[in-house]
Each structure stands twice: as structure tokens, then as C-alpha cells.
Design a protein that fits this description.
256 residues, MetI-like fold, mainly alpha, single chain
Length: 256
């Protein structure tokens, strides 16, 4: 018990049983048919199924729209929170955290009930509003953390050299905050693509996202096809994560 590595054992066990093992099971079932034989038919079915491809394309469309709205709303909010002259109270930051203390499913049900009370017809518009409401904090806080920890001497130096406040913001603060923006995009985009509960409750299941297809196949005991769809999503997440790391390095290199 005196070795530091010993204290890592519980975390290693957790990772094995709740991360590595489920991933292995997904891969195992994705390449099998109902009889347990090796096959690639599950992936062929996905790439040849017009409905599945259409749902995947719609999921990407909704995810891009949700991410774009979250950036447009989240960046100004993060900038105001990080600006000591505009935000002089820590209470404002807590107000953005409060919705995250409530279960996401309860927030979604409350949002759906609010639309019913207002007589608003459920559809893509209500879906995007619910998505933004649920994921906006995940865009704000990565950007806020970067802006809050940013060396203020960069902005001061730019102002001393004659830059206007807009030029300081656009040419100094925005480039330096890009790692936070990229992290926020990752935290909003990928969960949006794979979610299913929000689309079910906020559209009365009129709009199905990629996560809904996975859920329906799993609930219908079509484990193999559901696992294949999950693996496709995992591959996309992995590729996106690699691109995110490369972009962060490019941004850092450009700053240096």
C-alpha cells in the first residue's frame, strides 16, 4: 500500500470492466451474425440502407446546427463571464451551472411540457431549442476557462501598439481561445449525434437521430446490427478526437 501505483488499481479495474470490456463486446458482436459466425453484413446493411444513411445525415445536420448555435450564444457568454469589468460576481457563473445539477432527462421532460403549455408544435425547432438548452453549458465553460486563464499582457500589448478593442478581441483573444472552442465543439457535436432521448421527447419521435436507431435495434434484440452502428459511431468519435488534437497543436504552433 506504500506504492503510488497501488492506489491506481481501483481505477484500472474500473476501466477494464466499464470501458475496455464494453468496447470489446461491441467489436465482438459487430462482426458476428445471429448464429455467431463472422460477417461484415452488419456494416454492409448500414451503408446500403437508405433510411439508416438518411438518419445519419440528419443527425449530422442537427449536430452541426446545434453546435453552431451554441458557439454563437456560448462565446459571447463566456467572454462576458471572463471579463472582470462586465462580470464582477461569481454568482453569474453559478447560474450557468445550475441547470447541469438537474438530470438531463428531467430537463428535457420539463422543456417538452413547457412547449405543450405554450401550445408550440413539437418538431425540429423545438428539438434544436432543447439541444441548445442542454448542451450550451458544455460550450461555455471550456471557452470560459481558456479566456479566464489567458495572459492579459497579450491584449495589453496589442492595445499599446494601437489596436482597437475589436482588433484586440478578433486578432488576439479569439485565436488564443480556439483550444477552448474546439473542446466545446467536441463536447456538443458528438453527444448531439448520438443522443436519442431528447429527440424522442421534443419531437414525439417524429425525428429520429442516429442514437435512436441504435437504441431501437438493441431493444429489438438485434445486438449485432446495433453493435455495428455503435462501432461506426465510435470510429467517427475517434477520428474527430484525432483531428481535434491536431487542430490544438496547429493553434498552439501558430500562437508560438
Amino acid at each position: 500500500m506504500t506504492k503510488r501505483s497501488t492506489w491506481a488499481l481501483p481505477y484500472a479495474i474500473f476501466l477494464v470492466f466499464f470501458v475496455a470490456l464494453p468496447l470489446c463486446l461491441i467489436i465482438f458482436y459487430a462482426f458476428q451474425d445471429g448464429a455467431g459466425n463472422f460477417t461484415l453484413d452488419n456494416f454492409t446493411k448500414f451503408f446500403t440502407d437508405a433510411d439508416a444513411i438518411g438518419t445519419f445525415a440528419l443527425s449530422l445536420e442537427v449536430a452541426i446546427e446545434n453546435t453552431a448555435i451554441c458557439i454563437l450564444l456560448g462565446y459571447p457568454a463566456a467572454w462576458i463571464l471572463a471579463n472582470k469589468k462586465l462580470n464582477k460576481s461569481a454568482v453569474t457563473i453559478v447560474l450557468f451551472i445550475l441547470p447541469m445539477w438537474i438530470n438531463a432527462l428531467m430537463r428535457t421532460l420539463a422543456t417538452a411540457e413547457l412547449f405543450h403549455m405554450l401550445g408550440i408544435q413539437l418538431g425540429k425547432g423545438t428539438l434544436l431549442i432543447g439541444m441548445v438548452y442542454d448542451y450550451l453549458p458544455f460550450m461555455i465553460y471550456p471557452i470560459y476557462n481558456i479566456l479566464n486563464k489567458m495572459d492579459k499582457s497579450y491584449a495589453e500589448a496589442a492595445a499599446d501598439l494601437g489596436a482597437t478593442p475589436w482588433q484586440v478581441f478578433w486578432k488576439v483573444q479569439v485565436p488564443l481561445s480556439m483550444p477552448g472552442v474546439i473542446s466545446g465543439v467536441m463536447m456538443v457535436f458528438m453527444p448531439t449525434v448520438s443522443t436519442f432521448a431528447i429527440s424522442e421527447f421534443l419531437t414525439n419521435n417524429k425525428i429520429k437521430l442516429f442514437g435512436t436507431i441504435i437504441q431501437e435495434n438493441i431493444n429489438s434484440s438485434m445486438w449485432n446490427y446495433g453493435a455495428a452502428l455503435s462501432l461506426v459511431m465510435l470510429v467517427i468519435i475517434g477520428i474527430t478526437s484525432l483531428l481535434q488534437d491536431n487542430k490544438k497543436e496547429d493553434v498552439s504552433g501558430g500562437i508560438v
